[in-house]
Automatic annotation (TrEMBL):
The keyword Membrane applies. One of its GO terms (cellular component) is plasma membrane. It is a multi-pass membrane protein. Residues 8-142 form the RDD domain. It is found in: Cell membrane. Coiled coil: none annotated. This is Putative RDD family membrane protein YckC. PANTHER family: PROLINE-RICH ANTIGEN HOMOLOG-RELATED (PTHR36115), RDD DOMAIN-CONTAINING PROTEIN (PTHR36115:SF10). It comes from Pseudofulvimonas gallinarii. Pfam families: RDD (PF06271). InterPro entries: Pra-immunoreactive, RDD. Keywords: Cell membrane, Membrane, Transmembrane, Transmembrane helix.
Amino acid sequence: MDERLPAAPLWRRLCAFGYDLLALIGIWVFITIIAVALNHGPVGAAIVDGEVRVQNWWAQAALYAGLWVATGFYYALSWRYGGQTLGMRPWRLQLERAGAGTIGFGLAWLRYLYATLGLLLAGTGMLYCLVDRDRRALHDTLVDTRMAVLPKRSS
């Protein structure tokens, strides 16, 4: 792997993830509002005796799957076009691919899938960068990418 730029430490990745959550919450709220409007009320739930109760698990699962797909589009498009999400920009992080070549849309989706699985396993996929000598998370290792720290811009 070309080590032109230093590898990103875990704390920087987590800060960028926190910033990305702010953008994602906006996307999730927008999608949920549309789903609630189309459903004329809570999706897969009903208000019974002043409490929201689940009435249709499939409808709720479909909503959550839609939110996961929308999140994947956010990450995949960001990584594909520019190598950075909104949260990665202020922390000067950029996703790189080993060798010459860009990160394709399919590779970005595969990285997102692996990152999701690593996150579901108590974050072990991300914590892997603490033991990897190249500071790569498990999903980076699996798809042969790395997170680099960009140099500061001079004014």
